[in-house]
Amino acid sequence: MGGLMRRPTIMDIAKAAGVSKGAVSYALNGRPGVSEETRRRILAIASDLGWAPSSPARALAPGGRIGAVGLVVDRPAHSLGLEPFFMQLVSGIETELATSGVDLLLQVTEDMGAEIAAYRRWSSERRVDGVIMVDLRVGDPRVQVVEELPLPAVVLGGPEGVGSLPYLYTDDATAMREVVHYLAALGHRRIVQVAGPEKFVHTRVRTQAFLDAAAQAGLSEARWVHADYTGEGGTRTTRKLLAATDRPTALIYDNDLMAVAGLGVAHEMGVDVPSQLSIVAWDDSVLCRLVRPSLTAIVRDIVSYGRQAALMLARTIEGKPVANSETSRGELLPRGSTGPLGA
Q1: SS3 label, residue 118
Q2: Helices 256-268 and 231-243: angle between axes, nearest 10 degrees
Q3: CA torsion angle for 225, 228, 232, 238 (degrees, to 10)?
Q4: Overall pTM surpassing 0.85 (yes/no)
Q5: Whether residue 32 has a cis bond before it, omega within 30° of 0
Q6: Which of 102, 105, 147, 179 is deepest in the core (most CB within 10 A)?
Q7: 239, 225 in Cβ contact below 8 A?
Q8: How far is CA 316 from the centre of its chain?
Q9: Which residue segments constitute the domains of the chain, with CATH numbers given?
Q10: Quick one: how far is CA 254 from the chain centroid?
């Protein structure tokens, strides 16, 4: 029996143990009907054969749990693997799920239609017990789709635009205001936010907070531009900005990849950081600490963020009341990439 190439079945276990299929079922599901000695022997044989319940079988078991949750990330695959934010987020989710033996089903798409199709397929095929939704969009069509499916979900984002779904959000506006006032206090007036894609809610929140804080600080030349979170996008955008006659003296990047790329462009074009240009990265990472000068950054506990999301989803799946929650706010951590203008 040890040479089975296919997935072992209950019948295989029954033959190896010399018992009925019913006895195996009783033993595997912890139900009465077999002696304790027989139960232990059956479980040992099942383990030796590498038997594991299929997802449909687990779904039909008491409680109807699949033992898996889903996460779809709608980003280009080549850039996703380089972005520390999602690696830390997944690490946090996995850490929490591992304590209860639940698997994470991760799918990468480059199209919202494909993401919605994944939710529909997972729901109809009973592939997952629930999903964690990321990158909340403006007028996000995914929210209504998931609400209508029999698929528990938690949204990372909000508080607006999440419908009836429970959400976990971060107050990005307060952190952005802190960054702008910090740069203004260092003497910077031409500050540019290199924002992420306009379709994301958190991009709009940060940009509005940037503009409000700039107006409050009297920075009439402050402005924003959109980029795509990739290193290539950060490079192209920074070259255009630094080649302008009224080039900025401070740049705030919406992620660490773009900030590191921007620092490289500044070196390439002979713009000294920080005496001629200050750089701030959103979400600290090992990338920010490895470059020289090291990057001033917004620090958040992303791993904890992922764990909190997984906990909320577990409660949602169990049908327990789930309170919407706010993560700990990001904090500005000054490093070598920011300083007084001209110093």
Answers
A1: helix
A2: 40
A3: 10
A4: no
A5: no
A6: 179
A7: no
A8: 18
A9: 10-52 (1.10.260.40), 68-170+303-326 (3.40.50.2300), 172-299 (3.40.50.2300)
A10: 15
